[in-house]
Design brief:
Elements: E1 5-10, E2 15-17, H1 20-30, E3 33-37, E4 44-48, H2 49-61, H3 66-78, E5 80-83, E6 89-91, H4 94-99, E7 104-111, E8 114-119, H5 120-129, H6 134-140
Antiparallel strand pairs: 1-7, 2-6, 3-4, 3-5, 4-8, 7-8
């Protein structure tokens, strides 16, 4: 599982240095290949290729639908298969990097089986404008939250 926030930077060439806390997990469990995509153009979602292939398998089993086609259209539009280099860097696809403003300071957030990369300043502003509420927690229906 990937968890937590590990701030880092996207360099001038568009490369993200995978934080060491996450890189250890990648090395132990997944290997260097990722599918980097987005469902909204506001954030990059970094799926180890094994995890993305599970999504593709689930999609293949389902019936064709407008929602499935829309999902494939958007994730393929923003998506690319990327291999981590020897220094633990991933090249964020240019189209996604520009749309999501992933330059300079970014936050790399663990989200279970994927990593999410967001513009740190923009994400902090969103969290402040749309705070987590008691109603949100109640809707999760998880004891102890």
């Amino acid at each position: 599982m990937f968890r937590g926030n590990h701030p880092t930077r996207v360099d001038e060439k568009g490369r993200l240095k995978v934080p060491s806390e996450f890189k250890r997990r990648v090395d132990e469990v997944y290997g260097p290949q990722f599918f980097i995509t987005s469902k909204d153009g506001e954030r990059a979602e970094l799926y180890p290729i094994k995890e993305w292939e599970r999504i593709e398998e689930a999609l293949a089993k389902g019936a064709s639908s407008a929602a499935k086609q829309k999902f494939l259209d958007v994730t393929n539009y923003y998506g690319q298969v990327v291999e981590m280099d020897g220094q633990g860097r991933l090249l964020i696809p240019q189209l996604l990097r520009e749309k999501a403003k992933l330059v300079g300071d970014v936050a790399v957030l663990g989200q279970g089986t994927k990593l999410m990369v967001v513009n740190d300043e923009r994400h902090a502003a969103k969290l402040e404008a749309e705070p987590l509420t008691g109603a949100d927690l109640d809707s999760l229906a998880i004891p102890g939250l």
